[in-house]
Design goal:
Layout lengths: L9 E4 L5 H9 L4 E4 L17 E3 L17 E3 L17 E3 L17 E3 L17 E6 L14 E6 L14 E3 L1 E2 L18 E2 L18 H10 L6
Parallel strand pairs: 1-2, 2-3, 3-4, 4-5, 5-6, 6-7, 7-8, 8-9, 10-11
């Protein structure tokens, strides 16, 4: 049954929802809070879901392609293999949950926040990420080519084995992060602080990318060892 409160037009809990019902609320301009709801595999593309709140929802393989999701919140949701291609997630928050292998290609994540979530294998190619905040995010094996993180603070972000080619990390601070075995071809790290990053697995061809970056003595020794050099 629909319920009303001061913050949301409608609250739904423990419901299995189809596109038809979601579209009915969206077309009426209602703002919804959905808790423990199931939309697995649903086609939710091109809907206006601005400021909707999804909490502990099951969104596996759901399609939000081209949807308006500005200021939306996804808290503790299960969204593996979900698709957000071309969606507007400006100022959205994904807090907790599993979005492994989800696709965000060409979406807007401007001023969005990805917090405490799993996004292993996710595709963030060609996203708009100005002001994107990353904190405690698992992005191993993810695709993030050519993105700019310039002057960002990256806190506990795991980029291991990720495709980061041509990313801009100039003046970026890494805190508790991993770049181990990532694709760093043509990246830029001038004035970046890498002392809080695991840079294991760096290849000889990647070394030039680190020109101008700050690393610790221990990292320098590890790099020399990985390159097969011996310090006398």
């Amino acid at each position: 049954m629909d319920a009303i409160d001061d913050d949301f037009d409608v609250i739904l809990e423990n419901e299995e929802l189809s596109r038809l019902e979601i579209e009915r609320h969206a077309d009426a301009g209602r703002r919804l809070k959905l808790t423990n709801c199931v939309m697995e595999g649903e086609d939710l593309a091109r809907l206006h879901l601005t400021r909707w709140h999804f909490e502990r929802c099951r969104l596996i393989r759901a399609e939000f392609d081209g949807s308006a999701l500005e200021e939306s919140r996804f808290v503790g949701c299960r969204g593996a293999f979900a698709s957000f291609n071309g969606a507007d997630l400006t100022e959205a928050i994904i807090d907790g949950g599993d979005f492994n292998n989800a696709s965000f290609r060409r979406s807007s994540l401007a001023h969005a926040k990805l917090l405490r979530c799993k996004m292993t294998g996710a595709d963030l190619s060609d996203v708009k990420n100005l002001g994107l905040k990353l904190e405690e995010v698992m992005l191993s094996l993810a695709k993030l080519p050519k993105l700019s993180f310039r002057k960002s603070l990256l806190n506990q972000v795991d980029f291991s084995d990720a495709d980061l080619h041509a990313c801009d990390f100039r003046e970026t601070v890494f805190a508790g992060c991993s770049l181990r075995d990532a694709n760093l071809v043509d990246c830029r790290f001038e004035d970046a602080d890498l002392r809080g990053a695991d840079i294991g697995g760096i290849k000889l061809t990647d070394v030039k990318s680190f020109k101008g970056a700050v690393i610790s003595k221990a990292q320098a020794a590890e790099l020399v060892g990985q390159l097969g050099l011996k310090v006398a």
